[in-house]
## 1
Amino acid sequence: MNRKFEHRAEMTVRRKVGRAVHHYGLLREGDRVLVAVSGGKDSLVLLDILRKIPDWAPIRYELVPFTLDQGFPGFDAAEVRRQVARLGLELVVERAPVSEILACKAPRVSTPCSLCSRLRRGAIYQAAQRLDCHRIALGHHADDLIETLLLNLFFTGELKSMPPLLKAEDGRNVVIRPLCFLFEQEVAAYFEQLGLRAVNAGCPDRQILLRRRRWIKDLLQEWEKINPRVRHSLLAALQHVRADFLLDPRLLSGTACRPGPR
Ligand code: SF4
């Protein structure tokens, strides 16, 4: 990668992460932030950029890089530790029996991903408490948000995605997504210049998740032939919700529109 391209990739990441942090108040002075590091590109980029923000912005906080070893046979936690060490940080690794629970439930669940996500989320929330972290940073990027929006529209009948800042149901943890304005390609370009190695989660069911996501990705590529900026438009739509022009009675402001007694 030439220097000019590297510089542009870094500037894009800085600008968009800076905008997200500022716009949604994702980080506060003195925060102790647990950074969920799966070992994939997105989480390593997240960790790297969070470590660099104090170099150019007047804010100080502490990072706790954290990996949840879910017990999948092909996962190499030691390799994640090595990659994190190359960023000058020390990784905390904890083991949770996610793969074992999934194996027990396998005959009763058709897709393990929602149960797996719930178990992982619970384990990460608990770890954040133990490690005295106030915020949990996740590496979801703009394409994840858009794909989640479309998956929910097509399969669950809900108009929702993943928010940049979320107070968790337990009322104690605050989840943040500083990469929310960055597209996958921008994350990948930046990752390339870091010279790190992405580590596979080792999940045997990964193909199930990828198949569904693949369908949405193919759809987006088709739409891009009609409108090359369709991803930008979908991301902008998530930031400009016109609640009065939807059908949810809880969000309609005109009293005439409120459903009366039956
Ligand atoms: S792909 Fe595997 S690790 Fe990812 S959510 Fe599904 S079951 Fe869990």
Note: Residues 126 and 173 are 9 Å apart (CA to CA).
## 2
Amino acid sequence: MPTTRQVSLASRPETAVLPENFMMLDAATPPLGDGDVLVRHIYMSVDPYMRGLMNDGGVAYAAGFEIGKPLFGRVIGEVAESRNADFREGDFVYGMLDWAEWSVAKGGESLRRVDPALAPLSYFLGTLGFPGLTAYVGMMLIGKPKEGETVYVSAASGAVGQVAGQLARIAGARVVGSAGSDEKVRFITGECGFHDGFNYRIAPTVLEALRLHCSDGIDVIFENVGGENLDAVLAHANPFARIAVCGMISQYNLAEPYHLRHVKEVVSKRLNMQGFVVRDHAHLIEQFIEETAGHIADGRMAVAEDVMNGLDNAPAAFIGMLAGENFGKRVIQVGQDPNAF
Ligand SMILES: NC(=O)c1ccc[n+]([C@@H]2O[C@H](COP(=O)([O-])OP(=O)(O)OC[C@H]3O[C@@H](n4cnc5c(N)ncnc54)[C@H](OP(=O)(O)O)[C@@H]3O)[C@@H](O)[C@H]2O)c1
């Protein structure tokens, strides 16, 4: 069995995540038992929810990482050896696996085969993976945009945001996005076909920017950021607007959370504000992949991904993503992709 390098949790961050919160270890992969599969990792997903799992006690819907143990997340890999009748050597698979070069996975529900003929393998961690499904759940099941309505998406060039905005555009809505650089805004208003966008880092305030870019108010909000962004959204929401609360990335590293000033608008405007977690909708993934692969193949949906190389760069990739360094879905390539040109 191969030895594997792993990214483990050295300590818990107090506020911002630091390089010293991680440690690199070499470990032996255990022998395969009945039903086990040896997976050679190719791509690892770098996701904001992992920040919550670094805290003591994790988050309301999942236990946290353990100190001294490898971090884990969504991984695409190739089956190198199998003692499971459902998986053969050479299959490409997807599962919640360690941040490592190799791992031994249980088959069953925890591992799913992916079809490399459908799209580049890394897409199954982004637009065709759980970030894409997150966008679908928030936009189509909660936001339900209608033709002619105004939709606003924050963190709009990111893994979830780019799909959320494009789904609303396909549904016929007028879509406005915000992002943290002019290049990101050019991507959403260019390739992604958003109708308008702004760079929140140079706007005087999000409140002012929304007054300008959503002058008819907002009917559907896809909230990825929280804090000042959510406050401004509450101020500009139209009566009966739907707010899909997907994430609050501006808050994850803060010791003291932002206090909303416009929260009373939820009552006076009769807003429908709903938080959600994608794992509750995991059963929709196969149907989602089929539909969305069609959008990509037909040129209706653009994809931006940000691939970094090498397991040793994983901590920096994660810290950088939380600070907005990524342009699109951030993944780390840790092994050779035989399907890449
Ligand atoms: N509910 C669920 O099931 C679920 C599932 C997946 C993700 N999420 C949430 O969805 C959101 C987006 O996740 P993602 O995977 O698509 O990540 P992402 O957008 O690809 O990457 C994170 C982005 O957040 C933005 N950001 C960071 N700090 C910010 C701040 N203080 N203010 C405004 N923007 C900031 C940065 O973009 P800019 O340069 O544009 O600032 C950064 O690139 C996160 O809140 C995440 O927690 C929720």
Note: Residues 47-49, 131, 134, 155, 157-161, 179-181, 184, 224-225, 246-250, 276-278, 321, 324, 326, 329 surround NAP (CB under 6 Å).
